[in-house]
Amino acid sequence: MFGLFNRKKEKKGFNITSRYGNFIQKENETVLEGALRQNILLPHNCRVGTCRRCEVFINGSTVLACQFSSDSDITLEYNKQWHKANIDNITQLGNDIIKVGLFAPSIEFDEEQEGQYIDLTFDKQKSSQRKYSIVNINEKHLILHVKKHPRGEVSNLLADSRHGQEIFISQPQGEFRLPNFNTTPSTGLAIATGSGMGVALTLLDKLCSKYLINPTIISTSRKKSLGKYHDLLISDFKKKHPITKDYCMNIDEVNNYLKSSQESNATYIVCGTPELNQLFFDNRVLIEKSRSSIVQESF
Ligand code: FES
Predict the structure, then answer these.
(1) Which of 54, 79, 130, 276 is positioned for an S-S bond with 154, CB 3.0–4.6 A?
(2) ipTM value > 0.95
(3) How many angstroms is it from 34 CA to the middle of ligand 1?
(4) 54 CA from centroid of ligand 1 (Å)
(5) Which CATH architecture fits 187-298?
(6) Is the pTM of this model over 0.80?
């Protein structure tokens, strides 16, 4: 019913139905490329078939949307097992960010899963669900940093929720974690946009506790409405790691920094917009040439 790059069909595109929006995938592009071309944000990260963040079910088979090109109209399904959890803390962090504490008794967590993401929904029969990265884990308790979007159904429900309210979450997934290093890193840089700063600093803190490194934080949101949230997190981080350098940059400035700084043996922890991730993807060769590594997550 579907297959790779069937060029015999005369049809110029196929209708793809998904909970994130419906779109047309052309014959010469992958499902993910078709979605992004029409501004449908299917979950994804690496785009090269390694992170599995774009995994979907089609007629019961699993495919990676960044690698798969359909030759028929299809529906993308996202099956998952839901676990009950309860909200045990809601705290405002800056203007648009809330800290959400969850208690999830039926999931076995370990601290290595900090940085991974969970899917979260208030009603597992409905399609409204969002992915949120785990900023902290303390046994069965999780902390998320959630950006409130004016039309974001899940984020607004979270902001208005009460202590003890029941929700549903998936098992943690994803590859946003520190790699196994062949050589000790000399520098760690967290580069983040918006609510990605919380989880980026969690990984930078882990790096600092393992290795004697010089930490650097680059905020790409500080001049905007999320500035207070970033200031708060960065000032807490600097209390623990006083030698930390921090900068506020836009995407072009980050690009110039990457090209001019030539950090060697560094670890770049990147969590932000697809644009920020694309920048690091484009500079991957340069970064790897200087024996540095990148850990990336996008939202
Ligand atoms: S495997 Fe498809 S985006 Fe990473």
Answers:
(1) 130
(2) yes
(3) 14
(4) 5
(5) 3-Layer(aba) Sandwich (3.40)
(6) no
